[in-house]
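Extended Data, panel c. Modelled sequence:
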Amino acid sequence: QVQLVESGGGLVQPGGSLRLSCVASGSIFSINAMGWYRQAPGKQRELVAVITSGDSTNYADSVKGRFTISRAFARNMVYLQMNSLKPEDTAVYYCNAGTQNHDYWGQGTQVTVSS
């Protein structure tokens, strides 16, 4: 079992920045990759960014050049630096940890981009 807890969401004006953090606990040795997903009202959950234990990263086209995922596996943490935020980035952001057999999810943190 892996437990994930996110933090760092909030309300920000367009063009602003936020940094999300996620800390993992439990069977962290089994984690192959960690990432961030988001779900806006009325929409499906979508991948935002993912980082593997080998530091390979992948981003949704909509956030490339604006968001950066990083990790500190030694501290069991993954971060999402979000710059140049847009109203369409408004969503609940979920931390994800993938093992060979299971995906684990955090409870989500709300990000609202509005003037």
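The CA atoms of residues 24 and 76 lie 5 Å apart. This feature is highlighted in the accompanying rendering.
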